[in-house]
Every structure is written in structure tokens, then in C-alpha cells.
């Protein structure tokens, strides 16, 4: 459950480390984003000499959230941090080549198969 001004970790090797969400896509009154939803963020901290720079405005998909997420079988999954993966604006493809940390399997059902295939572990 992420809202505007939330600080998130960027969980890929695009160059960004920390980002700040400033818009949740999906309607003018949409307030919170959950796993699998697209947000617009600004990069707050980035690695030098990489593709993503500080102050870049990018689209990203939420891949981890601290709030417990209810699965269809009734179980809950919860992560230690809020994290996103940067995607290209027009497509649902990640900008980076590697994804760090655990990724929920619900992302592949939501149309982000390329993110789950590049992830090290899927839970």
C-alpha cells in the first residue's frame, strides 16, 4: 500500500537506488498502489555512470510491499521493504537486465512475465 511521497527501493540494476513515488496511475482519485500496479517516481539516489540518473522521472511497477498482500488461496504474503522495478513507459518490459530480491508469482499473472523470468527468486 504505497501512496504519493512514499520512499521505495529500486530493485534492479538500472542505476537507481532509491525513488520517491509522486503519482499512482489508474484514475484521478486512485490513492494507493499495491503489488503489480504502476506508479510514477522520481529517482532520489542513483549510482554513477549508469543509465538512470538522479531526478529522472520514470514509470515503475510495485514488486514488494510491507503491508500484507492477500493471495487468491487466502494466504497472506508480506515483505520487509517497499520496492519497485523500473519499466519502459510504453511497454511492460523492465529497463534493467537483473532483478534483485524476491518477487511474488502474482506479477506473471498480471502481465509482467519478463520481470519474473529475470528475478532470482519467485515466492
Structural summary, described in words:
The protein is mainly beta and 123 residues long. The protein has one domain: Ribosomal Protein L14 (Beta Barrel), CATH 2.40.150. Helix content is 8%, strand content 39%. The protein contains two helices and nine strands; from the N terminus they run E-E-E-E-E-E-E-E-H-H-E. It has helices at residues 106-109, 113-118, and strands at 7-10, 16-24, 38-46, 57-64, 69-70, 76-77, 83-87, 99-103, 119-122. The strands form three sheets. The protein has a five-stranded mixed β-barrel. The longest helix has 6 residues, at 113-118. The chain is globular.
Topology record:
Layout: E1 7-10, E2 16-24, E3 38-46, E4 57-64, E5 69-70, E6 76-77, E7 83-87, E8 99-103, H1 106-109, H2 113-118, E9 119-122
Parallel strand pairs: 1-7, 8-9
Antiparallel strand pairs: 1-2, 2-3, 3-4, 4-7, 5-6
Number of helices in the DSSP assignment: 2
Largest sheet: 5 strands, mixed, barrel
* CATH superfamily (homologous) name: Ribosomal protein L14/L23
Please, how many domains? 1
The CATH topology corresponds to: Ribosomal Protein L14
Q: What percent of the residues sit in helical stretches (DSSP H or I)? A: under 10%
Which regions contain 5 or more consecutive residues with pLDDT less than 50? none
Q: Hey, roughly how much beta strand do the residues contain?
A: 35-45%
N-to-C SSE string, H for helix and E for strand? EEEEEEEEHHE
N/C terminus separation: 19 Å
Please tell me the overall pLDDT.
Answer: 95
Structural class: mainly beta
CATH class membership: Mainly Beta
How does CATH name the architecture? Answer: Beta Barrel
What overall geometry do the principal axes of the alpha carbons give?
Answer: globular
Strand order across the biggest sheet? 1-2-3-4-7
Radius of gyration: 13 Å
Would you count the extended β strands for me? 9
Amino acid at each position: 500500500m504505497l501512496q504519493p511521497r512514499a520512499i521505495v527501493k529500486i530493485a534492479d540494476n538500472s542505476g537507481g537506488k532509491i525513488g520517491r513515488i509522486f503519482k499512482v496511475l489508474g484514475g484521478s482519485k486512485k490513492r494507493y498502489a499495491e503489488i503489480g500496479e504502476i506508479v510514477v517516481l522520481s529517482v532520489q539516489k542513483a549510482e554513477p555512470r549508469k543509465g538512470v540518473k538522479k531526478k529522472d522521472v520514470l514509470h515503475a511497477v510495485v514488486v514488494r510491499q510491507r503491508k500484507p498482500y492477500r493471495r487468491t488461496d487466502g494466504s497472506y504474503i508480506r515483505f520487509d521493504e517497499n520496492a519497485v522495478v523500473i519499466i519502459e513507459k510504453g511497454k511492460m518490459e523492465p529497463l534493467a537486465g537483473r532483478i534483485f530480491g524476491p518477487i511474488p508469482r502474482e506479477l506473471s499473472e498480471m502481465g509482467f512475465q519478463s520481470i519474473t523470468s529475470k528475478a532470482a527468486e519467485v515466492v
